[in-house]
Every structure is written in C-alpha cells, then in structure tokens.
Amino acid sequence: SQQGEEDPQALSIQEGENATMNCSYKTSINNLQWYRQNSGRGLVHLILIRSNEREKHSGRLRVTLDTSKKSSSLLITASRAADTASYFCATDKRAGTALIFGKGTTLSVSS
Amino acid sequence: ETGVTQTPRHLVMGMTNKKSLKCEQHLGHNAMYWYKQSAKKPLELMFVYNFKEQTENNSVPSRFSPECPNSSHLFLHLHTLQPEDSALYLCASSQEASGGSYNEQFFGPGTRLTVL
Q1: Which residues pair with B48 in a beta bridge?
Q2: What pLDDT is stored for residue B32 in this prediction?
Q3: In the prediction, which pLDDT does A3 show?
Q4: How far apart are CA B46 and CA B105, in angstroms?
Q5: Chain B residues inside the 8 Å CB shell of A44
Q6: Closest approach of chain A CAs to the CA of B16, in angstroms?
C-alpha cells in the first residue's frame, strides 16, 4: 500500500523562484528519501534524511522532516529550467523492508 | 550514468511471446530491485533480492518471473503478458546491511515495455 503521498501533484513556476513540495506518510519510518525523475528515465537519488534528523541541505536543496506530523518538505531554491522533473518521496515502513514511493510531484520550471 | 544498466531500452511484444529484461549493476551492491511504473500510478515494487535471496515479492502475477544469478545481475522473465502490463520497468540496486534501513537506491534508465 502507498506510504508517502506528495503534494501538490503538479507545480509550475518561473526560473529563479523557489519550489516547495510536501510529502506525508502514515506509519513511523526509519528514513525518508527524495528522488527525481526526468521524463521516461530512471530515478536519481537526491537526499536521505533519517528519522532523528530535522533538516538537511544539499546544494540548492533543503529537506525538512517533522515526525510528529509525519511529513517532509523538499525546497528547491533559485529554480532552473533543468529542475523540470517529477519528484518522489520514499519511505520504509520498518527496518529491513524495501522503500515505498509516492505518486510524485511534477515540477515545471519555465524560463 | 548511475552504474546500473538495463537492456533492452524498448520492447514490444505480443501476449503469447516470451522475453526477458536484463539489469546489471557495476557498483558492487548487494541488493537489487524490480519496479513497475505505470502512468498516473505510484512506483510499484515488484521484487527485492538481498544477498541474492529473494526477500520480497509484492503479489506479482506469476507471468513475471525474476532471476538473480549473482549479485551483479538481475533478470525479469516475461511470458503471456497482458496489455495492462505495458509500463516502464525499472531496476535499482543498493548496498544494504542485514536488517538495517534501506539506503539510497541507484536506478537504471528503465525498459519501456509495450504489450500488444
């Protein structure tokens, strides 16, 4: 069954603006991961945040995790046209089980 | 490139055909995965191989048959598929500790399968 659910389903912004995507999940997790997928291609890992962490940064990416609300957000700052892609969160229900992916947020950045 | 290759990249087959998808990882990982991605649906985990042992099979129909001959190679054998099986099939690998949380996965480019 689906664990993570991203919101919004689609997001359109202009280059230079920030993009924020949210992920909510239902059960406790060990870690939460964000992936990116360009149209029709494989997924690329962006960032992993563990359940005992609250915030992580990687370049223009900032991920937060609120385990009390069972939610995470992915912020892309100063977006570029090349950031156009689908973004997925993935969680594991418990240690030793495989990841479950959400439906994703489709981000479109226009120049 | 992610270090995970998949062949073929595109496959068209009839419902009575038998074909196989191949995945190879060059990362020295010990876990490999098959996922199915259909339009407007979440990525669906099909099979997990951890240390060459199948550890998860998410109620996948028997017309899909996985094979993991060694830690670098993973196959998905297909037979008597249905049109609704048309999708992007993605392979991934990761390095896992026994019983630990799953780490980042490296994905191949996928095989676009069309069943006529």
Answers
A1: B33, B56
A2: 92
A3: 65
A4: 15
A5: 2, 107
A6: 26
Report the C-alpha gap between B48 and B39 in whole angstroms: 22
Handedness of CA A73, A106, A38, B86 (dihedral sign): positive
Assign A83 to helix, strand or coil: helix
Distance between CA B36 and CA B20 in Å, rounded? 15
Q: Are B71 and B26 a contacting pair, CB within 8 Å?
A: no
Computed over every residue of chain B, the mean pLDDT equals 89
- How wide is the angle at C-alpha A92 spanned by C-alphas B55 and A3, nearest 5°? 115
pLDDT at A70 over 90: yes
Tell me if A40 and B104 make a contact (CB, 8 A cut-off): no
Q: Do A30 and B56 touch (CB under 8 A)?
A: no
* Among B9, B43, B57, B106, the residue to mutate for chain A (most A Cβ within 10 A): B43
Dihedrals φ, ψ of B45, to 5°?
-75, 130
Q: How many CA atoms lie within 13 A of A68 on its CB side?
A: 1
- Residues in chain B closer than 8 A to A40 (CB atoms): 88, 110, 112
Cβ of B43 within 8 Å of Cβ of A98? The answer is: no
Alpha-carbon torsion, ordered A52, A58, A61, A62, to 10 deg: 30
**Do B29 and B51 form a contact (C-beta atoms < 8 A)?**
no
DSSP string spanning B31-90?
EEEEEEE-TTS--EEEEEEETTEEEEE-S--TTEEEEEEETTEEEEEEES--GGG-EEEE
Q: How far is A79 from chain B (nearest CA, A)?
A: 23
Q: Which residues does B85 contact at the CB level (< 8 Å), separation at least 6? A: B63, B64, B78, B113, B115
